[in-house]
Amino acid sequence: MKYTRFAIYYLPPKGALAEFGASWLGWDIVGGGNVDQFQVADLDQVTKRSRKYGFHATLKPPFRLSKDASFSDLAAAVKTLSSKMRSARSDGLELVCLGRLLALVPTGATSGISDVAAACVTQLDDYRAPLSDAELERRRKANLSSEQETNLVRWGYPYVLQSFRFHMTLTDRVPKKDVAHWVKVAAEFVPPLSEPFDLDEIALVGERPDGMFELIERYPLRGGY
What is the pTM of this model? Predict the structure, then answer.
C-alpha cells in the first residue's frame, strides 16, 4: 500500500474500547475497513470528518514524508524511538466536551503522556516534509496564539508540545445546542473505562489514497527515555 501521509497515534489495544471506537465512527483503523456504525440518529453526520482518522489519540500529527526519507527509514526510526521511551500512566479516562467536540481524555497527572507525545513530535521530525504555503495559510485561519504559530512553523502543527492535550476524538464539532445531547448519547455507549490508563505503545499509521487512515504497525514502549 502506498500512503500519502503518516502519523503517530495511540490506538487502544484489542478489546471493548477499541471495538466501541470502531463502531462509533464506523471505521476500523486496525483492520482497515468499514464496520457497522451504531444505529443512532445523525451519528454518521457528527462523525463524518473524524471517521477517516479512526479512533485514536494523535501523538505526532499527519505529515508527508520528507523527500530525503523512505518509509523504511521512518519505520526504523519509530521502532528505535519506542525502544528508548518509557510507558506513561494516568489515573484513567473520562468522557468530556472539548469546545464543541466530544473526546475521551486522561484524568490525573498527564506529564508522562505529554512527554511521549513531545518525543514523537521532535525526534521524528526529520522525516516530515515542510508544509506548503497553502497549508500554513489554512492553519493560520484558526486565530493561533504566538505559541501555536511558533509550533506551526517549527513542527508543522499548532497544537503540540505546550499546546498539546491528549484526547481520543469521538465527534466533529457539534452545534452548541446539541452538545449535552451527544454527551448523553456517547455515555450510553462508552464501555467501562479501565483505571489506570496506560500508554504503553505507539502506532505508525498511514493515510491511504482513498483518504482513510489504517494501522501499519504497533511499537511497545520499552525504554527509559
Answer: 0.95
